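ARCHIVE CARD
Drawer: 12
Card no.: 0347
Subject: one protein chain, sequence and derived structure
Cross-reference: see card 0346
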Amino acid sequence: MHWVDVYAEKLLKLSDSHLVQSGTGISGQPHLGSASDIIYADGIHKAIIEQGGKSRAIWIMDDMDGFRKVPGQVPKDFKQYLGLPAADLPCPDGCCGSFVEHFTRPFLKNLERIDIRPEAISVASMYKDGKYDEVIRTALEKAEEIKTILYEVSGSKKADDWLPFFPVCEKCGKVLTTQAYAYENDKVQYRCSGGVAGKTNFPGCGHEGEVGIRDGKLPWRVEWAARWSHLGVTCEPMGKDLGAAGGTYESSKIICERVFGSQAPMPVPYEWIVIGGKRLGKSVGRILTIGEMIDIVTPEITKYFFFRSQPTSHKEIDFEFAIPKLAEDYENSERVFFGDTDNVPEKEIDDIKRSYEISQMNGVPEAPGNAYSHLVSIIQTNLDLEGEIDWNGVLTTLKRTDNIDQMDERSKAKGIAVKEWLDGHAPENVKFSIQKDMPEVELSEDDRKFLTALSSAISDIEWEASQIHDTIYETSQTCELKAGQCFKALYKIFLGKNRGPKLGFLLASQDRKFVERRIEQAIE
């Protein structure tokens, strides 16, 4: 049974109605990893409904969190806003109503492209609209119990007058610099003396004052528990760090149960996405986004990346070298779904089929689509003078190589994704262009010996990729030459390079007479 169905089944044994939550801190442009818990939550949410239960999927925008670091996508002068709630920041480009809208709107639009549409909820609005009033009162009244729990679980020791509330300073507007020390009649007294977030110190303005309980926020571990209790959350995916022993989930779970009197949600821990051995995020340089991934591999393959294995399994990606392999894995699952189960362990077949099914956007297609790697060759051999895709040429090639009469929308979308990958991410050794004229290359006597034999050998074979490949290899053996040397000779005369894509596909995509004439020119 696929993992989304396992979680759905477990949840439905507890209740027939569920609230599946995901959440994201709004500190700049969300990267690909930021989409993980939303995608996992959506899969479980839909599986609950498929199994006959009721479910609601929500996405929490943690826009009351303090602004800790100026990301690379915003002007450097945003340093002036450090310490303020994200909800109070202006739009960095002046195109939206706020900082939060500027980064969340495109993020949600891209999630819609993979049919994920959670109900978006602003934490700042929940505070300001009074929806958190009751849980804030409870937290403040039970501050001593919360302190005890935090110490027992994580070893965090708080000051004697500590209260679980961070007021927004009336003078400087910061939330990362305040300490609450007294509470009475929905009023919190505080001092703005500075604070620490991560490894960064944030100086306070020195102001002392009093605010209402709607003018601030709860500390994260308390806020998480309060949110579960207030909304009735029953399931939430979360990064593996949050679910570790002594981590945030453990302490929030106890606070939820002992302080707020509610059942904590079922956790779904997931592995981080890594690139080059590092957790995907700002630390690895340029941010990789969910929108970019959809652009270069299609919505279906993007979803497959997340659903093909358990959330806790290793997930590594880069947009340069890993994309063709990811597409190939997806296409293998597609073939399994349509009945090609040779060499696939029987115990894995159902999960592979389910991963493919979950990844579809508008139902399962009638038949498998064209291979991504095949289109990498076809697209590059069918570009017009402006470098745009010549779709008539692509179709002509597909008629010759795949025996199809027309391209469906999925194949065309995959072709567009391939072009996007080639233009922005593909390594140079993948890029090529068929040389219209015979390039000036050096060929040895052995090269010509091989080409002469090949010219005769290919004259009566079916013009199909695997037969072309096999004929090249068999001819190299007949000539008692290394296959690598013979393949290299062909790449040189067609591409002007020493290597390229799969040669069988490459030559099959070309007109047979053109290939035969080029080999003759090389021999001459």
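Annotation on reverse: The domain at 3-132+220-274 is CATH 3.40.50.620 (Rossmann fold). The chain has 19 helices and 15 strands.
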